[in-house]
Each structure stands twice: as C-alpha cells, then as structure tokens.
Amino acid sequence: MVKIQVVSDLHLESGFEYDAYELDPVAPYLALIGDIGNTRDPGLFNFLKRMLKQHELVFFIAGNHEPYHSSWNSTHAKLREFSDLVNKEPELGAGKFIYMNQTRYDLTNEVTILGCVLFSAIDPKYMPHESDLAWLNAQVSRIMVEEPNRKIIIFTHYCPTFDATEPKYKTSLITSGFTTDMTKEECWKCDNVKVWAFGHTHYNYDVVEEGTGKRIMANQRGYNFSKADGFDPTKTIEV
After folding, report:
1. How many CB atoms within 10 Å of residue 129?
2. Domain segments of the chain: what residues?
3. Where is the Calcineurin-like phosphoesterase domain (predicted)?
4. 188-208: buried (b, 16+ CB within 10 Å) or exposed (e) per residue?
5. Which residues pair with 238 in a beta bridge?
6. What is the CA radius of gyration of the chain?
7. Can you tell me the distance from the alpha carbon of 139 to that of 112, in angstroms, rounded to the nearest whole number?
8. Residue 46 in contact with residue 56, Cβ under 8 Å?
C-alpha cells in the first residue's frame, strides 16, 4: 500500500505566497498536479525545495499557469534543470523531485504512476493533447500486456471527464478548454488504473466510479482571492 498527498492549483503566484504558504506533510509522497506557480518566479523553486525537505518524493505536473508570461519550452527547460540540480546534489534529508511530462515512474514493484499535462481537445487536431493522449494509451496498453498485475495511478493537470466538472458549466461552450471526455480511451477503461487525479477546473471532486472502482479526484485550492470549496490540504490517495 502506498500513500500520496495530492494537491493542485495552489496558485501561489496570485499572492506571492511562495514563502508563506505552509503545506503540512501527511504522507511520504507528494503530488503537485499543476498551477502551483509561475516558473519565471524564483519563489516557486524555493517552495519546491521546502516540499522536498518534507517528502521522500515530490511528483510535479506543470499546469497552464506555470508558463504564464513565458513559454512551454522555457517552462520545461527550467523544470528539467531544477530536477537535475536537486537530484544530483540533494541537500541532507531532501527527497527526490520527479518532473512528470509524459513520464512513467514505478513507485513499487506493483504500483506505477503515469503523469502528463493532458491539455484539452478544443480542436480535434490540437497536437499537445493528442501527444499526451497517445502516450497515456500506449503506456497503459504496454503495462496491461507486460505487467498485467501492476496498478496504475494517473496524474494530469487537465480534467479527463465531464462528469467531474462543475454542473453549471457542463453545457458551457468554454468547458472544452478545461475538460476532455476520455471515457472511451484505453487509459480510462483499463481496470489496472486505480486512481486518476487532476486539477485545472477549480472544482473539487472525489468519486469512486461504479464498475471499475477507479477513484477520480481533484483537490484544488484555487486563487488566494477566490478559493475553491472543499479543498483539503491533507487529502491523500492510497493504492
């Protein structure tokens, strides 16, 4: 059994809270699933260093806010550089940083984490979404064939099902900018997938799907001036 603390959409950039925000550890592993802050702000990396001192592993998914006032290429480069730096020369007692950008991480001999941004399919040919989707399906299919007993946890910033969006926005014309229906995809239908955690919508959700038993959850704080209802900084998943 593994236990992971899961939060997203802290938006520490909205009040420059990088140094002030406290996230008490309640599990050995922490998943930060996007929109934690801006990579142009040194404070984001100071916050991540604090989290590394509190956890054995920190999994990080970039959200759409990480590259604000910058670019995706720059954001990826900065996060890879940070990962290389802290993992190559870790301070005494610091954990390991896992930047998840189409990344598979085998947490144990029985549990695998798959992580990517996912983006959304506003245009059916939107390449970042198609790339992440193809990667997820390929990874899940491969695990099913080669390691059929392995349990899978998926972390994405973008929402994978319209069932998990705020009801009043389900028919909105802009909802596709936050959510894509993944329910017909292999990565969704596979029984090996035990948890799918996401962010981006600022709507908190935690449901176990009937039939598959898959837990679908979001634990999002929101902006410091407009916080999401139901955020729990101590929320965890166990697989």
Report:
1. 20
2. 3-238
3. 3-203
4. bebebbbbbbbbbbbbbbeee
5. 3
6. 17
7. 10
8. no
pTM, 2 dp: 0.91
Alpha helices (H) in 103-225, listed in sequence order: 127-146, 186-189
pLDDT in tens, 167-221: 776 666 566 667 888 999 999 999 999 999 999 999 999 999 998 899 999 999 9
Give the type of residue at 235.
K
- Tell me which fold the domain 3-238 belongs to: Purple Acid Phosphatase; chain A, domain 2 (3.60.21)
Q: Which residues contact 180 (CB under 8 A, 6 or more apart)?
A: 118, 119, 120, 121, 129, 158, 159, 160
Nearest-angstrom CA–CA distance, 191 and 15: 41
DSSP, res 20? T
186: helix, coil or strand? helix
Q: What residue has token string 């970042």? A: 128
